[in-house]
Amino acid sequence: MLRQLKLKALVYTRYHALRKKPVVLFQKAQEGERLRWMMAPLLNLLLGPLKRLLRKDDHRKKKEARRRRREVGEA
Fold first, then answer.
1. Tens digits of per-residue pLDDT, 15-59?
2. How many other CB atoms sit within 10 Å of the CB of residue 9?
3. What's the domain of life for this entry (predicted)?
């Protein structure tokens, strides 16, 4: 179904200045592209878990870096 629509929703992430969470912005639909515009939130649902995984990975890296710094401080 997505292929039929040739969904042109421009998906890109931009860091939200306050929360530092990626925000997905969708290209505004032109006249007669209402269906595509309605597909955008569905795409968001698909992308959500993926971004969550990336965030978790980020947190793990931060924790490891913190631990490494602590070890260096003790030595």
1. 444 455 444 444 454 555 555 556 666 777 777 777 777 778 888
2. 21
3. Eukaryota
3-class DSSP state for residue 9? coil
Q: Tell whether pTM > 0.85.
A: no
d(C-alpha 10, C-alpha 15), whole Å = 16
- Per the DSSP assignment, residues forming a β-bridge with 15 are 22
1 CB-near residues (< 8 Å, 6+ apart): none
DSSP string spanning 37-51?
HHHHHHHHHHHHHHH
* Amino acid residing at 45: L
Q: What are phi and psi of 72, to 5 degrees?
A: -65, -40
Q: How far apart are CA 64 and CA 56, in angstroms?
A: 13
CB 20 within 8 A of CB 29: no
Q: What local confidence, expressed as pLDDT, does residue 8 receive?
A: 44
